[in-house]
Amino acid sequence: MYSSIKVNPSLQPRPLAASAKVYDLDYFLRGALAGGICCSITHGAMTPVDVVKTRMQLDPVKYDRTPARATHTPEQAPG
To answer: Which residue ranges traverse the bilayer (predicted)?
Structure first.
């Protein structure tokens, strides 16, 4: 009954790659370098935002709910 159905050859499962990929030291060093660059960009961008958020949470009266004031308010020297 189903012997007359033609299957497109491009839909047939293909074998895996003929040669196995070799992951050498250079591959892992490039991955580590890419991760380090991405992490440093993200950390550099988000740390100042977190500092402002923390200041606003610790002293909401002083920073008056606006992030701009939290970044421009000078710190008073104690004593």
So the answer is: none
Instruction: Give the least confident one: 7-11, 25-29, 50-54, 62-66.
Output: 7-11
The residues, ordered by sequence, that sit 6+ positions from 79 with a Cβ below 8 Å of its Cβ are none
Q: Could you tell me the two tokens for 7? A: 């299957």
CB of 52 closer than 8 Å to CB of 70: yes
Q: What is the mean pLDDT of the chain?
A: 79
Residue with tokens 């500092």: 51
Report the number of distinct structural domains present in the chain: 1
Domain membership flag for residue 3? no
| Selection from 6-10, 61-65, 75-79 with the highest mean pLDDT | 61-65
